[in-house]
Specification:
Number of helices: 11
Strand order of the largest sheet: 1-4-5-6-8-7
Radius of gyration: 32 Å
Largest sheet: 6 strands, mixed
Shape: elongated
Distance between the termini: 66 Å
Number of strands: 8
Amino acid sequence: MGHDQIFKEFLHAFLKDFLELFFPKDEARLDFGSLRFLDTESFTSFPEGSSRAADIVAEVRRRNRARKILLVHVEVQAERRRTFRKRMFEYFTLLWMRHRVPIFPVAVYLRGGRSTLDEERFVIRLFGREQLVFRFPVVALARFDARGYVEKDSPVAAALASLMSRRRDRAPLNLRVSMMERVEQSGLDEARKLLLMTIIETYFELAEDEKPKFERLLSQERYREVKKMQLTWVDKMKEEGRKEGRKEGRQKGRQEGQREGLQKGQFEGKREALLQLLTSKFGPLPEKTASRVRAIESLEQVDRCLDRVLVASSLADMGLGD
């Protein structure tokens, strides 16, 4: 499962928790009881004509008296790139043109970034003057301290800590167990726990020599429930792998079937064309000759007959006479 799919599922399940973790004052102004995800926010209005889809766009109402609607737009980037600011501005513009409501844009960098919580800008200048300045907040996960977020009372913070800095941590294996333990003890339903486990397992990778040490650590009695959760996650991944394999198999079968069907259609079409050409050149065909043509089963033989009919002076020349 790629970054985009993992974080799309994560933000669908934990958007409120994510905003509360990094933008608590803004989250407090929003009524998540009215939350509605807009999953069809794709755009083709870019100059190059390509189609792009925003990662997450959600509609939510404010908690004030007017309870007006706004959009929360979150884009997840593997790493910081110069061209990304322009893309955020393009998304903002197109969302505004489509919905005409205020927009709260947020970027998430999985790697890199200048500081933990930052603000980036896209600026349009002319003759030394700033004509337009577009600002958006950035969450650079790799700049945060993992241990500090594991110790927060939040399974979401613990899972996201798997993307955070562990350079100063002297016991990374214990830290990983603590992340998993925080998720297991969260009281969340199984589906949400396994979603957070996917983040931990994907982004807190173990070196080969660390894996047996980690398994020994996890086999301790105090981590029995954590181990059980991990095994449930492994079973889920195996089942998803089997489903994906069956899906790919069906798709491959359909493609092969379509290819075979196309080849068969081309063959039958050429055989009918041969019958029509023979009839046009030599008149109504004897039933025996027509049967011989319909009995041809090789595309190569049909092609040879089609080439020969142009120069043949009789059915005998074609090898189809009595």
